[in-house]
Amino acid sequence: MKIDVKQDVFSLNNVIAADNRALFNAKDIFTINIMGSPGAGKTTLLERLIVQICRQVSVAVIEGDLATARDAQRIAAHDVPVIQINTDGGCHLDAEMIAKVVRGFDLDKTDLLLIENVGNLVCPATYDLGEDLRMVVLSITEGEDKPGKYPIAFMEADIVALNKMDLNDYLDIDTNNLIADIVNIKPQIKIFPTSCRNGKIVGMDELAAYIIEAVKTKKQDKILRGQA
Ligand SMILES: Nc1nc2c(ncn2[C@@H]2O[C@H](COP(=O)(O)OP(=O)(O)OP(=O)(O)O)[C@@H](O)[C@H]2O)c(=O)[nH]1
Ligand SMILES: [Mg+2]
């Protein structure tokens, strides 16, 4: 029997991702897809980022997890609109999941959409959600060999938050090797060493400034295109 496959799963995802991107562009929303292993510190970093930038840009957050609304509850405590997606066993978010929920935000009042993907250093990297920027959060506790072993996430990323730098003195790891491993995979990637732990905040001013600048640049580019 001949099986007629009309579209593979990635090309269908790419079509919906393009629609998401068109919507975000029309609404002037800068979107970041945040990925990394379970426990790397994605939600903690988002909480810290929101505290630092919420007076300058209006933020909305989508949280992706297999189960529970725990991360969304943490974000909601910062008085930011948040929607939790439970993938019910799925190891990544896809563009359709985002399309289904995103109009639940007031998009005319959103400058920055932060999407925390399911904790996983592999699968999320192959699914475009329609984002402008991809960020990997990598905890230094994961070990200095991890970028080379899980290269796809880094190949597809624009920036890396090298998190839990406050633990550096307690670990048998050389962060220079870790950074070299990442740069070897993608030379143009931007790396922000960070610590989000209360009382030991590192690198968050630099990361916040970079993101605010990216949000502003997207808005300015649109104005310039409109004048051209
Ligand atoms: N020491 C230290 N601990 C951190 C830092 N960032 C996060 N943590 C801790 O790491 C643990 C996991 O943090 P989360 O923010 O929940 O990690 P996550 O990546 O969102 O996890 P999932 O959503 O389950 O994939 C928590 O106990 C945090 O307090 C950091 O910079 N330094
Ligand atoms: Mg989380």
At a glance:
This protein has 228 residues and is an alpha/beta fold. The chain has helices spanning 9-26, 42-53, 70-76, 95-101, 146-149, 151-155, 175-185, 204-227, and strands spanning 30-35, 59-65, 82-86, 112-116, 133-139, 159-163, 190-193.
Q: What does this molecule look like?
A:
This protein is an alpha/beta fold. It has one domain: Rossmann fold. Helices cover 39% and strands 17% of the residues. The chain is built from eight helices and seven strands. The chain has a seven-stranded parallel β-sheet with strand order 3-2-4-1-5-6-7, sandwiched between helices. Helix 1 packs parallel to helix 4 (95-101) and helix 2 packs across helix 8 (204-227). The chain is globular. The protein binds guanosine-5'-triphosphate (GTP) and magnesium ion. Residues 42-43, 71, 116 line the site of magnesium ion.
Summarize the topology.
Blueprint: H1 9-26, E1 30-35, H2 42-53, E2 59-65, H3 70-76, E3 82-86, H4 95-101, E4 112-116, E5 133-139, H5 146-149, H6 151-155, E6 159-163, H7 175-185, E7 190-193, H8 204-227
Parallel strand pairs: 1-4, 1-5, 2-3, 2-4, 5-6, 6-7
This protein binds guanosine-5'-triphosphate and magnesium ion.
Guanosine-5'-triphosphate (GTP) binds next to helix 2.
Summary keywords:
single chain, 228 residues, alpha/beta, seven-stranded parallel sheet, binds guanosine-5'-triphosphate, binds magnesium ion
